[in-house]
Give the backbone structure.
Amino acid sequence: PSMLPPANTQKRNPFQDLRQGFSYLREQPLVLGQVLFWGLPSLAHAAFNGLLPAFSKDVLKVGPVGYGILQGATGFGSITSLLTLATKAQVRRRGLIMLASGMGMGVAFLGFAYSPWFLSSAILAIAIGAMNTSVTTVNNTIIQELISDQMRGRVMSLREVMTGLGPAMSLMVGSAAEIAGLTVATAGLGAVVVAIPLALWLLPTRMKKI
């Protein structure tokens, strides 16, 4: 078969597409909220991964092997959550599930910050991975249903751009850990992750009605 593009394909200016994506989000506040909410667990998870080596060495004192186990624990939680969601033919009250998962992730951060034992830390790392995947997977489903086909690529690309902010988030949280300590920095991260979905849960927003 021919590999040539369709005859009606036109070269587009990527900056024009970017501007149209931002304009679309301004006109669709519910979609904008979903895009911003997707960034919350993703950036927090990136910052958490940046702190794990220090926790393994200085707090839990389990060394490289323990660090590998904690990393594997978050991955195990992610896979378990993904498989659980995949077995559901239809997930109802997705907005509530997403907000509850976000709060659960924040609580797991708080627990991890003050956990003195490696076993409990590993269990909490599993919960963090599971809640992160639950939020991002459900959020992706909601966004796909809300946006139009014409704007799908633009909106999804803007969402992915937020991934690039992960190193900046890690730098900020790492700087906070340098000043206030690992426990305080991680607890602060957890408090923020709990507060935002909790506010959306309590306020009369459309998100939890999805």
Summary: The mean pLDDT is 82. Residues 29-59 form the longest helix (31 residues). The radius of gyration is 19 Å. Helices lie at 14-27, 29-59, 63-86, 94-114, 118-146, 152-161, 166-180, 182-202.
